[in-house]
Amino acid sequence: MQLKPYVRSLAVAASLAVMAGCSSTGGTQDGTMDGTAGSGGVGTGTAGSGQVSGSGLGEGAAQMASSRIPEVRTIYFAFDSDAIRPEFQSVLEAHAGFLRANPGAEVILQGHTDERGTREYNLALGERRAGAVERFLNVQGVSPSQVEVVSYGEERPAARGSNEEAYAQNRRVVFAY
Amino acid sequence: MRALMTVWLVALLLCAPLAQADLTIDITRGNERATPIAVVPFAAEGAALPVDLARVVADDLERSGYFAPLEREAMFARPSRAEDVTFGDWQALDARYLVVARVARQGDGVEIRYELLDVTGESRMLGERITAGADQLRAAAHRISDQVFEAITGIRGAFSTRIAYVTSQGVGEDTAYQLYVADADGRNSQQVLSSDQPIMSPTWSPDGGKLAYVSFETGRPAIYVQEVASGRRARLTSFEGLNSAPAWSPDGRRLAMALSRDGQPEIYVMDIGSRQLQRITRSPSIETEPAWAPDGDSLLYTSDRSGGPQLYRHDLASGEVERLTYTGAYNARGRFGPDGEAIFLIHRGANGYRVARQDLESGRLVELGDARHAESPSVAPNGTMVIFATQQGSNGVLGAVSADGRASFRLPAAQGDVREPAWSPFLN
């Protein structure tokens, strides 16, 4: 599916809205965001919209939809956050482009956390992280039927160790095709 | 010589798998106010028993935090029956209580006659004769510990209970996961499930016959119920999204759980017989880690509706919800003590993630022990100890702390990580 320019800019605006909403780490994001900027669900005072300003997303990577699965399949998160960091927007757009161009392709978004905190709560946080990526893909025009979220919480760390380096590698969402 | 070596080889082979899977015990902090007790080595007729019964009893009593067993080297008399005891010998050693016993062979098994004596009062408190098969020697010792503990403290002993826990080895895609049950002292471990996908949240049915847990074996989390003795199991839920944190109701008929089938993780209660679901919470935040009050009338759960995780209590009849925790920004995975008057939880304070107890009436929260990165507290059925997961070096190990925080111990495994302990109910 190739988005028309105005549709794409709508998608970009909606992505920004999603990201602003997602950067709240509290319990206020709701899963029913309807993909229009300024809609409900962004209403908390803690939204870190400053993180996503001026990153010029949308024009480059999203057009590079191809038949190849993008090579970068892991994005990382800050502590206690499900905000998509600006440096990973192009990664997400590449996957969105691939999934739009290949409607038969399906991806599992695997959400992971670091080891700190309780396991079952971390399982929920991992789902929230993967859910933020799912919403980003949806507003970029990816069909919801192509995307599934599975949270592993802290159960499958990529790196061992109780230090910030390991923690940073473990707070991640993996695109599993 | 050759015959002797063969025997040794057989013994080694028999012991090897146990030695790898069993947990050992390291007492990390004894209770200074523990009551001195002497457990005299049991007098056995004929060849020595394969299990040092008096050692098992003394270790049980020491682990409870209530007792400080006397060192054997200090015992200059080794009586095996009350008539042979000179109380002055034990008063000189400051022992308050004394356990003596003699063991006779009976077929393949043994007959144990033990007695508990009050050294200060110079009286006999308890005497019992128990028989045990050759494979029940440790169980017999735990029974003695239970009886001694109750006779002195008035609290039912929980030494004959079991624990379930999850182990893992490796990292990333190659991690292997197992679910075990073992005696409360970490011995007699038995694997009940093994998988190359995560296993989480084991929890006992109130009759001690079944475990509920979460397994990712299909690539997605699902809740299973498994009979411990037969290994027979059934998949109870596999909804879209999270299927997590199962918790049995005290009557054993319902299972509380966290599901995200309707969006965010919410608390549900399933009637196990009919598989009917009742949704308990409705909130745009995370709700998980449900636990039942001992009377079954309310649920405790974690919610981050206030911004960070805190504990809430939901009255099932009225639907009223009360926030319970206000100390600090992170309080999660709460469990009721058996009297319903206190909850045990994970609290993040200046010292990181610690096990804590909060008394419900006063609201006062106190950290228990000094284990770091504590997770998954589970309360002994008599309320005296809390077992939990912690770290030792770079490995996950189990730890336990007395409910008053005075005594603690660790149960490290020979290899890999151990976590998510669940203390069984009383089994006898």
From TrEMBL, chain A:
<keyword id="KW-0449">Lipoprotein</keyword>
<keyword id="KW-0732">Signal</keyword>
<comment type="similarity">
    <text>Belongs to the Pal lipoprotein family.</text>
</comment>
<feature type="domain" description="OmpA-like">
    <location>
        <begin position="64"/>
        <end position="177"/>
    </location>
</feature>
<dbReference type="InterPro" id="IPR036737">
    <property type="entry name" value="OmpA-like_sf"/>
</dbReference>
<dbReference type="InterPro" id="IPR014169">
    <property type="entry name" value="Pal_lipo_C"/>
</dbReference>
<protein>
    <recommendedName>
        <fullName>Peptidoglycan-associated lipoprotein</fullName>
    </recommendedName>
</protein>
<feature type="compositionally biased region" description="Gly residues">
    <location>
        <begin position="37"/>
        <end position="59"/>
    </location>
</feature>
<keyword id="KW-0472">Membrane</keyword>
<comment type="subunit">
    <text>The Tol-Pal system is composed of five core proteins: the inner membrane proteins TolA, TolQ and TolR, the periplasmic protein TolB and the outer membrane protein Pal. They form a network linking the inner and outer membranes and the peptidoglycan layer.</text>
</comment>
<feature type="compositionally biased region" description="Low complexity">
    <location>
        <begin position="26"/>
        <end position="36"/>
    </location>
</feature>
<dbReference type="InterPro" id="IPR006690">
    <property type="entry name" value="OMPA-like_CS"/>
</dbReference>
<dbReference type="Pfam" id="PF00691">
    <property type="entry name" value="OmpA"/>
</dbReference>
<keyword id="KW-0998">Cell outer membrane</keyword>
<feature type="region of interest" description="Disordered">
    <location>
        <begin position="26"/>
        <end position="59"/>
    </location>
</feature>
<feature type="signal peptide">
    <location>
        <begin position="1"/>
        <end position="20"/>
    </location>
</feature>
<dbReference type="InterPro" id="IPR006665">
    <property type="entry name" value="OmpA-like"/>
</dbReference>
<keyword id="KW-0132">Cell division</keyword>
<dbReference type="InterPro" id="IPR039001">
    <property type="entry name" value="Pal"/>
</dbReference>
<dbReference type="InterPro" id="IPR050330">
    <property type="entry name" value="Bact_OuterMem_StrucFunc"/>
</dbReference>
<keyword id="KW-0564">Palmitate</keyword>
<comment type="function">
    <text>Part of the Tol-Pal system, which plays a role in outer membrane invagination during cell division and is important for maintaining outer membrane integrity.</text>
</comment>
UniProtKB/TrEMBL annotation, chain B:
<comment type="similarity">
    <text>Belongs to the TolB family.</text>
</comment>
<keyword id="KW-0132">Cell division</keyword>
<keyword id="KW-0131">Cell cycle</keyword>
<dbReference type="Pfam" id="PF07676">
    <property type="entry name" value="PD40"/>
</dbReference>
<comment type="subunit">
    <text>The Tol-Pal system is composed of five core proteins: the inner membrane proteins TolA, TolQ and TolR, the periplasmic protein TolB and the outer membrane protein Pal. They form a network linking the inner and outer membranes and the peptidoglycan layer.</text>
</comment>
<dbReference type="InterPro" id="IPR011042">
    <property type="entry name" value="6-blade_b-propeller_TolB-like"/>
</dbReference>
<dbReference type="InterPro" id="IPR011659">
    <property type="entry name" value="WD40"/>
</dbReference>
<dbReference type="Pfam" id="PF04052">
    <property type="entry name" value="TolB_N"/>
</dbReference>
<keyword id="KW-0732">Signal</keyword>
<comment type="function">
    <text>Part of the Tol-Pal system, which plays a role in outer membrane invagination during cell division and is important for maintaining outer membrane integrity.</text>
</comment>
<dbReference type="InterPro" id="IPR014167">
    <property type="entry name" value="Tol-Pal_TolB"/>
</dbReference>
<dbReference type="InterPro" id="IPR007195">
    <property type="entry name" value="TolB_N"/>
</dbReference>
<keyword id="KW-0574">Periplasm</keyword>
<feature type="signal peptide">
    <location>
        <begin position="1"/>
        <end position="21"/>
    </location>
</feature>
<protein>
    <recommendedName>
        <fullName>Tol-Pal system protein TolB</fullName>
    </recommendedName>
</protein>
<feature type="domain" description="TolB N-terminal">
    <location>
        <begin position="23"/>
        <end position="123"/>
    </location>
</feature>
